[in-house]
Amino acid sequence: MSDLNAVTTAEAPGPAPDRPRRANRSLAGDAWADLRTSKVFWIAAALVVIVVLMAAWPSLFTSADPRDCLLGRKDAGASGGAIFGFDFQGCDVYAKTVYGARDSVLVALCATLIAGVIGVLVGLAAGYFGGWLDAVLSRFVDIMLGIPFLLGAIVLAKRLSSNPESNGVLAVIVTLGVLGWTTAARVMRSAVISAKGQDYVAAARMLGAGPGRLMFRHVLPNAISPVIVVLTILLGINIAGEATLSYLGVGLKGDAVSWGIAIAETGPYARTAAAPLVWPSVFLAATVLAFIMLGDAIRDAFDPRLR
Amino acid sequence: MNQEILLDVRDLHVEFRTRDGVARAVNGVNLRLHPGETLAVLGESGCGKSVTAQAIMGILDTPPAHITGGQVLYRGVDLLQLPERERRKVRANRIAMIFQDALSALNPVYTVGFQLAELFRVHRGTSRGEAKRRAVELLDQVRIPDARRRVNDYPHQFSGGMRQRVMIAMALALDPEVLIADEPTTALDVTVQAQIMNLLADLQRQRTMGLMLITHDMGVVADVADRIAVMYAGRVVEEAPVYDIYGRPAHAYTKALLESIPRLDHKGRQLNVIQGLPPALTDVPRGCSFHPRCAYAREICRHEEPPVYQIAPQRIASCHFVREVLGV
Amino acid sequence: MFRFIVRRLLQMVLTFFGATFVVYALMFAYVDDPLQALVGDRPVTDSQRAALNARYHLDEGFFAQYWHYIKGLLTGDFGQSLTGRSIGDMLSQAWPVTIRLALLSIVIAAVVAIGAGVLSGIRRGGVFDTVTLVLTLIVLAMPIVVLAPLAQLVFGIQLGWFPPTAGRNAGLYELLLPALVLGSLVIATELRVTRTSVAENLRADYVRTAKAKGLAPRRVIGVHVLRNSLIPVITLIGVDIGVLMSGAIVTEGVFNIPGVGFNLFRGIRTEDGPLVVGFVSVLVIVFLVINLIVDLLYAALDPRIRYE
Q1: Is B114 in CB contact (< 8 Å) with chain C?
Q2: Which Pfam families match (chain A) (predicted)?
Q3: Which residues are CB-contacts of B305 (< 8 A; sequence separation ≥ 6)?
Q4: Which of A15, B224, B275, B299 is deepest in the core (most CB within 10 A)?
Q5: How far apart are CA B86 and CA B77, in angstroms?
Q6: Which residues lie closer than 8 Å to B252 by C-beta, 6 or more apart?
Q7: Alpha-carbon gap: C209 to the closest alpha carbon of chain B (Å)
Q8: Domains, chain A, with CATH or none
Q9: Mean pLDDT across B250-266
Q10: How far apart are CA B102 and CA B106, in angstroms?
Q11: Are strands B65-74 and B7-18 parallel, antiparallel or unpaired?
Q12: Are C149 and A281 in contact (CB < 8 Å)?
């Protein structure tokens, strides 16, 4: 999970570089032209579409109910619609795996949105205003980075999920969102600092644009692309984060269906029945992979130097 | 001047094969260098002068660069035919090179002493202590004050001029017979430039080295060079003793270059800059490659590559209108 | 160098207070009943309540609580778990095996990542490079909750190459599979950074100089390129220690290794709040100290930092 964080810090997609543009195309248009020819992009996009469909309309993929478990068919092999067989409680593994996408994607999307908003605002403020505000915010980011991600998440998630009534969705969203914004803020800050120095910003300022307009109309649009890359990868990290917290017992719980819970529950029985452990693992890894590949492809399109 | 030939480059061809096409960077260059002589290779950026130098050294990255023809004879031995192992013994020992930007050309994480001593240790098998002592000696020779202490400093702790002195010390460490200096003063302040050029000239005289000075700056050349080879689009278009070139250029390009230098006695007159840009190496014009920018160009220049005219014992020029340019 | 160390130490003091404060705030700030937050939804006896109050000063203000907590940390008093065991004792029993595991996985990860990363970086676009890139992508996509149970299943149970669990006195061989799992968490990023860094450095001017000095390719890469390329990798290894800590919680849980992560894993499962806060605080401190050491190492590798 936070290992993925390291990718984005280490190969931080800098602000969009100067490069020869093809005639009459914006940087985004150029990037899109690159993306369209990228195999990695299309594979990732296809995977993402499948996962999102699965999350939105699980009934498209299975007619079984993941909570319809019969101990009588415990560890039974594949039959009919239950192509992955049944787990130790007699639940349909395929149905559980399909339904596991829902909360995973929901949690990751919301958490990434929160992290994105915080990260963009903090980075924008630090980069645009500079001075003491930048110093304070940057120190705060350093402090946050001084806490290994999962350790902080465990503490916060444990505290938020102490309400026995909830199924933990909100707690995990807040946990991942509140702790996950640091990379986005760092990348945003450096992108803003370089965008701020561009001539067109100076020109807009001379034409009398106020700070709010300058920040949101001129600087933000030109500094946002590296942040989008970071957030795409963060989606993958958050999918993994939700699974890990759920696995540890401080994430989703109760009647929630989650890949992390499935892995935790079936792990000890893997010796007798491997399928209930293997399939949620495969789906989880494939989903994380899809978002990382998507992020990689977008970064390559925006910044060919890093290829 | 000694007539023995140290370095003889014959009909050298280098091309870069990239995704965007083949760039012909060097198209049949001929150069000769004698002991104790300074040959200036002059040309705009992208004319192939640095590529020629790196081809002589054998440090081009292949791919994308490919040497497609010609010979580089050092004392009669074709370096291009030598196995890499033998070739490495020539570098620094016989032919050494210094680069334009000494800050990036020196390794930032090792002391200059380490980088100097490395030469003795690798090529001569000298002991650590002895190599260090030799490094101090070398820094002394290139007139770096307090060499004994500074030998332990890192490149970023030196000023630009001092760094270039370190580069020179490194190049001269193993007493090479040929020194190739690729724009050695371009990155420096004007006052420092003169100091470095004087240092180079002094060291060259002491050691009777052949010096190949690559530059785009005609001002630098005038004081130190014996002969000048003017390059354009990967070819030597004119070669002559320095006074002849300044007095009476024989190629239209050389003439245009000279006229584009601001001169005090021409104050108030309009400067004759050369129109246009040097050609892209992926698309060198047919005929004489200079014709699109040339004031003398006529129909023949568009179709026929000009031959090389021997216009005096030590002068050649490759221009259809040598006579007109010379004014005879 | 001296000034660099002093500045880094000051920074670390600030980060130390900041990070411990954040951890403490995550747990206790704005809680109606901090005690309930600490013990979860299990019932609390009056004597437990009194003991916890005495330990955490929960009846005092938030900043006073933090003050008592930080005083405990600095004097090596990490409190007691809900089961009444001293957290300090638990830690000292748990450290040895965790340190062995961590060292093993760091070494495996660094050797593989740097070795393969250098080879990939030298021949970018070659077969080896392409294969490694695909492999790293797959490894990157495997969260620890996938990696650890699957590795145990495949290599420990089905293939039987390694023992599926390791005990307190686990030797090198028992720890090898967990260490590989743990190392895989950081191998991919370290490898990719090495690769990019080597490829960039190979294009640097000083490499051309080294070639012009007549050095053999082995020396150009082994002496000149490698040291420059390692600079970003070393910084990354500091960050990766945090990843390893997180990963150790799941890995030690899965492989039954009674180390620090295992204790934390059980503490989370049993909702033992004091244990979790105590262990997490200590791990955060260890993380900060290791990063300080890594920074000093970084300065040793890169003289430009030392003399700035």
Answers
A1: no
A2: BPD_transp_1
A3: B287, B288
A4: A15
A5: 11
A6: B290, B294, B295, B296, B297, B319, B321, B325
A7: 6
A8: 29-67+91-306 (1.10.3720.10)
A9: 75
A10: 6
A11: antiparallel
A12: yes
- Token pair for B55: 């081809």
- Assign A70 to helix, strand or coil: coil
> What band does A113 get if pLDDT is binned at 50, 70 and 90?
very high
Which residues on B lie below 8 Å from C227 (Cβ)? 109-110
CA distance to partner chain B, nearest, from residue C190 (Å)? 21
- The domain segmentation of chain C, as residue ranges, is 2-74, 94-301
For chain B, the residue count is 328
Q: Answer for the pair A24, A240: CB distance below 8 angstroms, yes or no.
A: no
Whole-angstrom Cα Rg for chain C: 23
Nearest-Å Rg of the Cα atoms of chain A is 22
B107 contacts in chain C (CB < 8 Å): 206, 209-210, 224, 228
Superfamily of domain C94-301: MetI-like (1.10.3720.10)
- Out of A155, A264, A278, name the one closest to residue C26 (CB): A155
For residue B51, count CB atoms less than 10 angstroms from its CB and return exposed for 0-12, middle for 13-18, buried for 19 or more.
Answer: buried
Evaluate if residue B168 carries a pLDDT over 90. no
CB contact (8 A) between residue C31 and residue A288: no
Name the one residue in this structure whose structure tokens are 């989650």. Answer: A258
E strands within chain B? 7-18, 21-33, 38-42, 65-74, 77-78, 95-98, 178-182, 210-215, 227-232, 235-241, 309-312, 315-317
Nearest to A7 among C14, C140, C271 (CB): C140
Contacts of A276 (CB under 8 A, 6+ apart): A84, A85, A86, A87, A88, A93, A262, A266, A269, A270
pLDDT, tens digit, 9 for 90 and up, residues A76-102:
666 666 667 777 676 777 778 888 888
A229 secondary structure, DSSP code: H
Closest Cα to residue C43, out of C271, C277, C266?
C271
Name the nearest CA neighbour of A93 among A245, A249, A282, A290. A282
> pTM to 2 decimals?
0.81
Taken in order A131, A192, A185, C10, is the CA torsion positive or negative? Answer: negative
Using the structure block, give the residue that is written with the tokens 């039974």. A76
Q: What's the CA angle centered on A14, arms A12 and A16, to 5 degrees?
A: 145
> What's residue A5's pLDDT?
40
CB C71 within 8 A of CB C24: no
Q: Which positions ≥6 away from A206 have C-beta within 8 Å?
A: none
* A1 to C143: CB separation less than 8 angstroms, yes or no: yes
Q: Give tens-digit pLDDT for A16-42.
A: 333 444 444 566 677 777 777 778 888
ipTM of predicted complex: 0.83
Tokens encoding A286: 């494939």
| Mutate which: C17, C24, C26, C194, vs A, most A CBs within 10 A | C26
Residues 6+ apart with CB under 8 A from A216: none
3-state secondary structure of A252: coil
Residue type, B93: N
CB of C17 closer than 8 Å to CB of C285:
no
The closest alpha carbon to C84, from C113, C114, C52, belongs to C52
Average pLDDT over residues A213-238: 83
Which letter, b or e, does each residue of B72-110 get, where b requires 16 or more Cβ atoms within 10 Å of its Cβ? bbbeeeebbebeeeebbebbbbbbbbbbbbbbbbbbbbb
Do residue C245 and residue A150 have CB atoms under 8 angstroms apart?
yes
| pLDDT band at residue C108 using 50, 70 and 90 as cut-offs | very high
Other Cβ atoms closer than 10 A to C127: 8
Question: Which residues make beta-bridge pairs with B12?
Answer: B29
Which conformational region is residue C272 in: left (phi greater than 0), alpha (psi within -120 to 50 degrees), or beta?
beta
